[in-house]
Write a structure and sequence with these properties.
Layout (H helix, E strand, L loop, with lengths): L4 E10 L3 E4 H5 L6 H8 L3 E4 L6 H16 L8 E5 L10 H8 L7 E4 L5 H14 L5 E9 L9 H4 L4 E11 L4 E8 L7 E2 L24 E2 L1 H22 L9 E4 L4 H10 L11 H4 L6 H11 L8 E8 L3 E8 L4 E5 L11
Parallel strand pairs: 1-14, 4-5, 4-6, 11-12
Antiparallel strand pairs: 1-7, 2-3, 6-7, 8-13, 9-10, 12-13
The chain binds coenzyme A.
């Protein structure tokens, strides 16, 4: 098959205006602002309204990315949503979003690899463009983690927030996808999972003990922490190797924003100056598959990321899963949306 180049033509971001600050958690669980800042680096998270689902907060980010790319929804050949918090187990949130963008007949699908969703989605969407299947693809990392967070569990509730990042990928003469490395280890799902709602523990099963609490994220924080650093470093080195590059060639690392200590340890292991790492965890907490494109949008919008620079996107998360993509930046704009979309009439 003939090969084509791919570039990111525009970036969008949207975070809902509701805020949960560290001090707010002091009223919910036995914690302190000081503990949260020292152990995670987080200060605030944006939280969707009760009536908002993932597609509702994805819409303004999608429109922002299209505007930044100078495109209309009709220019899209495909819509891909990376999410661990879809509107429903099915249909795919991408189908709902495509419809909200006014598209009928356009292919749309979700990618579900928890917090690694954006790097997996970017690899898949870029492959669709590079192989010539599609010319223009909208990819989002979109999450409403507040909907599956147990606000009585101090070991998880302080960590997660809601938000969306979006990119428009398009065919290009220059190929900006320089390399990737993806991996999983599914031998122990209990390291990080949502116990109820799938076919193992259906939410409708009669008499299922603890079904209500099983509807929330469960995690073994310390084992995830260790794996996160090891695998983000290994994936980054492998992806750079595939690209024929070394850590010294990296202008910006954009890591998944799960814990500032994980980011610091990763940056240190790669021997990168911390200024070359995009960090916004203090404002959003862990937004799973949205964290990387949200950070990208901010670093492009404020001018840190410039034409020709080498960027590494690195993630890890439930699966367990991990991955890194090496990308050459090619002069795209970013737009941060501030207005929420009108919420769709509930259909179910
Ligand atoms: C969750 C995490 C922040 C906990 O930090 P930690 O330094 O590992 O803390 P520990 O789990 O060792 O807990 C230390 C103590 O703090 C307590 N603690 C946990 N959360 C707390 C909170 N919010 N406030 C106060 N104390 C808390 C624990 O109960 C424990 O108390 P104990 O010593 O009396 O048993 C950290 O392990 C982490 O970030 N892990 C990775 C998680 C992750 O990235 N998940 C998403 C992947 S995409």
């Amino acid at each position: 098959m003939k090969g084509y180049g791919v570039t990111i033509a525009g970036v969008g971001q949207y975070a809902p205006p509701g805020i949960l600050a560290n001090k707010d958690f002091e009223k919910l669980v036995d914690t302190t602002d000081e503990w949260i800042v020292q152990r995670t680096g987080m200060k605030r998270r944006h939280i969707a309204a009760d009536h908002e689902a993932t597609s509702d907060i994805a819409l303004p980010a999608a429109r922002a990315a299209l505007e930044a790319a100078g495109k209309l929804p009709a220019d899209l050949d495909c819509v891909v949503v990376a999410t661990a918090t879809p509107d429903y187990p099915f249909p795919a949130t991408a189908c709902i979003l495509a419809s909200r963008l006014g598209l009928v007949g356009t292919p749309a699908f979700d990618v579900q690899v928890a917090c690694s969703g954006f790097v997996y989605g970017l690899t898949a969407a870029a492959a669709l463009v590079r192989s010539g299947v599609y010319k223009t693809v909208l990819l989002l990392g979109a999450e409403t983690l507040s909907k599956i967070t147990d606000y009585t569990d101090r070991t998880t509730c302080v960590l997660f927030g809601d938000g969306v990042g979006a990119v428009v990928l398009e065919r290009s003469d220059a190929d900006c996808f320089l390399g990737c490395n993806l991996g999983t280890d599914g031998s122990d799902v209990s390291a990080l999972y949502l116990p109820v709602g799938g076919s193992r523990n259906p939410s409708g099963r009669k008499g299922m003990a603890g079904a209500d609490r099983g509807a929330f994220i469960r995690m073994q924080g310390q084992s995830v922490f260790k794996l996160a650093v090891q695998q983000m470093v290994a994936a980054t080195l492998s992806a750079l190797d595939q690209a024929g590059l070394a850590p010294a060639d990296v202008d910006f690392l954009i890591p998944h924003q799960a814990n500032l200590r994980i980011i610091d340890a990763t940056v240190k292991a790669l021997k990168l100056p911390v200024e070359r790492c995009v960090i916004n965890i203090q404002e959003y907490g862990n937004t799973s598959s949205a964290s990387i494109p949200m950070a990208l949008a901010e670093a492009v919008a404020d001018g840190r990321i410039k034409d020709g620079q080498v960027i590494v996107f690195a993630a890890f998360g439930g699966g367990l899963s991990w991955g890194a993509v090496v990308w050459r930046w090619k002069g795209a704009r970013a737009r941060i949306a501030t207005q929420p979309a009108a919420v769709a009439k509930a259909t179910a």
